């Protein structure tokens, strides 16, 4: 979820002189990831209706799932959803929601990297507001315990159902599954202004099982909206975890044309659990890293609004850092800056972004023989954190290493309007008008490019989804239990009944290592 790090010494880099400074700072690396219309409320929907499935959810209206126009008097009014988010990349972007009867207002973190909808259900030190089920006449407990663990942080709660209304969302009230969080660890952090999490990924990640209908699946089924949503986060160049909040938009059911410029470029969703995509290559300052494309997708590449940084597999991360060091105008960086334990500080009159190169990510196009690239300028990955005194501004490195995924998090997403077109199994990217610093854009999209220089498939053909991992785990535990039982029986057999090996006996001891890849 996030951790608080203490930096005993911060790297001070000035344009003309060098010095040192000391400060404390909080560096949240994860704000999630690596796992939640009109008329009277519907019946509880804890378990997915037998007649529905992901593949059967057909959108209303255009058969391709796109909704580019909205009816201000109907269920969908996209203009009303503009600027319905607040937050920043350091602590996440959240949406106001009314829960229960009478309604209890809460701010809910928007997370495309998990699938449970959960809210604080009891007082806690870092929770400023919580949902009290006893005060809602429409709340129905299912009595099912649920625990969700993220890359950092976890919570435990109880599943139930209740009605929700989104003041700046689709019109009407709907009954959805909701987990009330009773215990948590490193989930609600100091300074966060949200009180729950809205997981918008697929039901394969839902806890305790995929039979729990997700929040967005409930909206698609009940409100008859197209199976698509889009997201804009406006924090480019602004302080991470500052005292104020930035804006953003979560558009449910379609695409709002005023939130992007130019064309929308789409890449296929490889697997419907996370929003898994296929990365073909990375460039730093226009120079290809020359890595095998499978390195970028080890063991998955996902688009996750709940992750604060751009996270790269260790080998890719090391290559990116080396390339930035080679092309940067400043060579004397402490290793702590790259690992996130130190900040770099400049005089407030200076802008360090000119010292760093552009970073480009190539994604496979819907036409598999083509690709396109999304590029972020240093204003997105060299991120202002805090000021020291009146003269210094400090920055963090907005990229980190990962052991199990490439994660396109807020560091990149703040540069784009991102469309999650579930109906067509694709994720779209377009340049966001709010991705500007000093009046200049800090993100770019270019294409098409040929894919002749990369493999036809950069994603492993074997996908270890969590349900499969659990089945494999239980099978292995059962096998170990049987082996242990046999060993105990052999130990209890009297010596006279045991076979005595002679010199002519041959014993072969073959063992194998089973490697699990966890999300």
From TrEMBL:
One of its GO terms (cellular component) is trans-Golgi network. GO terms for molecular function: aspartic-type endopeptidase activity. Residues 36-46 have a biased composition (Low complexity). Pfam families: Asp (PF00026). The chain crosses the membrane at residues 468-493. Disulfide bonds join 234-434, 293-458, 345-394. Residues 36-65 are annotated as: Disordered. Glycans are attached at residues 171, 367. Keywords: Aspartyl protease, Disulfide bond, Glycoprotein, Hydrolase, Membrane, Protease, Signal, Transmembrane, Transmembrane helix, Zymogen. The active site is at 111, 304. This is Beta-secretase 2.
């Amino acid at each position: 979820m996030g951790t608080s790090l203490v930096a005993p010494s911060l790297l001070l880099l000035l344009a003309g002189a060098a010095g040192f400074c000391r400060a404390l700072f909080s560096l949240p690396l994860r704000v999630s990831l690596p796992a939640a219309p009109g008329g009277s409320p519907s019946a509880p929907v804890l378990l997915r209706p037998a007649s529905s499935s992901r593949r059967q959810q057909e959108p209303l209206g255009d058969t391709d799932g796109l909704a580019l126009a909205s009816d201000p008097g109907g269920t969908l009014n996209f203009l009303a959803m503009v600027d319905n988010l607040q937050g920043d990349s350091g602590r996440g972007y959240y949406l106001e929601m009314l829960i229960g009867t009478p309604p209890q207002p809460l701010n809910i973190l928007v997370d495309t990297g998990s699938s449970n909808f959960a809210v604080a259900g009891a007082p806690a030190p870092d929770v400023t507001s919580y949902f009290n089920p006893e005060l809602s006449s429409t709340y129905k407990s299912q009595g099912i315990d649920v625990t969700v663990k993220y890359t950092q942080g976890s919570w435990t709660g109880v599943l139930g159902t209740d009605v929700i209304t989104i003041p700046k969302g689709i019109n009407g009230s709907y009954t959805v599954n909701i987990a009330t969080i009773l215990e948590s660890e490193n989930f609600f952090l100091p300074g966060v202004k949200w009180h729950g999490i809205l997981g918008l990924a697929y039901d394969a990640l839902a806890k305790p099982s995929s039979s729990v209908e997700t929040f967005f699946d409930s909206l698609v089924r009940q409100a008859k909206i197209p199976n698509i949503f889009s997201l804009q986060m406006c924090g480019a160049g602004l302080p991470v975890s500052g005292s104020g909040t930035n804006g953003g938009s979560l558009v449910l059911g379609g695409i709002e044309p005023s939130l992007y410029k130019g064309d929308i470029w789409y890449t296929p969703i490889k697997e419907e659990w996370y929003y898994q995509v296929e990365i073909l290559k990375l460039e730093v300052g226009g120079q290809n890293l020359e890595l095998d494309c499978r390195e970028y997708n080890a063991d998955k590449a996902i688009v996750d609004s709940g992750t604060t940084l751009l996270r790269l597999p260790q080998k890719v991360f090391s290559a990116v850092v080396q390339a930035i060091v080679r092309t940067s105008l400043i060579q004397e960086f402490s290793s702590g800056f790259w690992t996130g334990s130190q900040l770099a500080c400049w005089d407030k009159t200076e802008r360090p972004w000119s010292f760093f190169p552009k970073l480009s990510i190539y994604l496979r196009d819907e036409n598999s023989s083509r690709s396109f690239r999304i590029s972020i300028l240093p204003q997105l990955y060299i991120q202002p954190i805090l000021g020291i005194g009146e003269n210094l501004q400090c920055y963090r490195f907005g990229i980190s290493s990962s052991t199990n995924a490439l994660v396109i998090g807020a560091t990149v997403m703040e540069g784009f309007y991102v469309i999650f077109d579930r109906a067509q199994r694709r994720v779209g990217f377009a340049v966001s008008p709010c991705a500007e610093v000093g009046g200049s854009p800090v993100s770019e999209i270019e294409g098409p490019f040929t894919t002749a220089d990369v493999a036809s498939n950069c994603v492993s053909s074997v996908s270890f989804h969590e349900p499969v991992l659990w089945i494999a785990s239980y099978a292995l535990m059962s096998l170990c239990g049987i082996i242990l039982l046999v060993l105990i029986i052999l130990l209890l057999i009297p010596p006279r009944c045991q076979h005595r090996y002679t010199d002519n006996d041959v014993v072969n001891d073959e063992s194998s290592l089973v490697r699990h890849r966890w999300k």
